[in-house]
Design a protein that fits this description.
With 90 residues, this protein is of the alpha+beta class. 27% of the residues lie in helices and 37% in strands. It has a four-stranded antiparallel sheet with strand order 1-2-3-4, with helices on one face. A hairpin with a 5-residue loop joins strand 3 and strand 4. The longest helix is centred in the N-terminal third of the chain and has 12 residues.
Length: 90
Amino acid sequence: MLVAALFVARTCGSHNRQISQDEAIEIATEQAGFEPCDEQGCVMIRAIQRGIPTRLVWVVGLAENLDEDGQPTRFKNFIVDAETGEAVRA
């Protein structure tokens, strides 16, 4: 019975994901104060579960430019709550 309750709790909680990957990037870009460059590696995003009980967040990394070696010259990282859209600098 306990296993069934935990399964239901986890699956019901997973349907509350309201903020999409693209929306998380938009939110982080607004917070960053710059537009990330268009090159590959200027926008990095990953969905992770965080906290107890777990909650989905997007970890978004933005780079304004890349140097000749492909390394970001100016970057900011954010954690965006997938349910509320609240963003904090990481």
